[in-house]
């Protein structure tokens, strides 16, 4: 499918989606977020795709929601369209693993979009921030919620109240990103991580994603039960037999996603 604001490439088992509004530092407008939701759903449906990478440009992953699109809207406009509610749900309903590969600015909705992915690999040039407070509003796509769960109250308050940017090193120290790599190696490292994930059995990568995400939605005892039941359920797969047999036979598992 042809898109206007994103570029999608599927190579081997990895779909790479690149945000592509260079003149606006990849600011997220409704069109881009809808195209992104469609591309993610398409990748989810494509049997060839086993992992997805979401990335931007060297200067900006995304500099936030599109301020020019929002500036004239009224409360009623925002409320009736549930501004970015549906788009956010479409993105987070992706069932295959999604890696955010972030270089440059990930601000406002850009930081929130990165947090909607399953984990973030940051270039050493990455800058994260929730500067909405400077615009007379607050974050609207998870910047007060996901960020608080990721980095804790004190830092999340600091980011949301002062609007300051956090560099990649602080983001890693705070638990926002899983690793920091030299900017030149960002896509290579993201691709290596995606290839590693793509080697696994898809039922188990999808179950692992569901189980980790459950940790943010429920109590510890319910989450542990959910995890245990998924763990038990995977014993119904051929890939569990293959994975364990391969271990014992000291060979590489040949998973068939069955
Ligand atoms: N929306 C619309 N356009 C944006 C944009 C945004 N969020 N961020 C950058 N742009 C545009 C600029 O307007 C500019 O376009 P023009 O050349 O047509 O004027 C172009 O991108 C390049 O930007 P700058 O000239 O500003 O580049 P810079 O290098 O001087 O500064 C920056 C970079 C610090 C990221 C700066 O662009 C900036 O502060 N951007 C806004 C960041 C922001 O406030 N994000 C939060 C948005 S609100 C939100 O996200 C709500 C939510 O939670 C859902």
Automatic annotation (TrEMBL):
GO molecular function, one term: enoyl-CoA hydratase activity
PROSITE patterns: ENOYL_COA_HYDRATASE
InterPro entries to which the protein is assigned, alphabetical: ClpP/crotonase-like_dom_sf, Enoyl-CoA_hyd/isom_CS, Enoyl-CoA_hydra/iso, Enoyl-CoA_hydra_C
Pfam families in the record: ECH_1 (PF00378)
Leading EC class: lyase
GO biological process: fatty acid beta-oxidation
Superkingdom, taxonomy of origin: Bacteria
Transcription among keywords: no
Residues annotated as transmembrane: none
Keywords: Fatty acid metabolism, Lipid metabolism, Lyase
Keyword Transferase (UniProt): no
EC number(s) reported in the record: 4.2.1.17
Database matches in SUPFAM superfamilies: ClpP/crotonase (SSF52096)
Catalyzed reactions per annotation: a (3S)-3-hydroxyacyl-CoA = a (2E)-enoyl-CoA + H2O; a 4-saturated-(3S)-3-hydroxyacyl-CoA = a (3E)-enoyl-CoA + H2O
Function: Could possibly oxidize fatty acids using specific components.
Family under the similarity heading: Belongs to the enoyl-CoA hydratase/isomerase family.
NCBIfam families to which the protein is assigned, alphabetical: PRK05862.1
The protein's name: enoyl-CoA hydratase
Organism whose genome encodes this protein: Pseudoponticoccus marisrubri
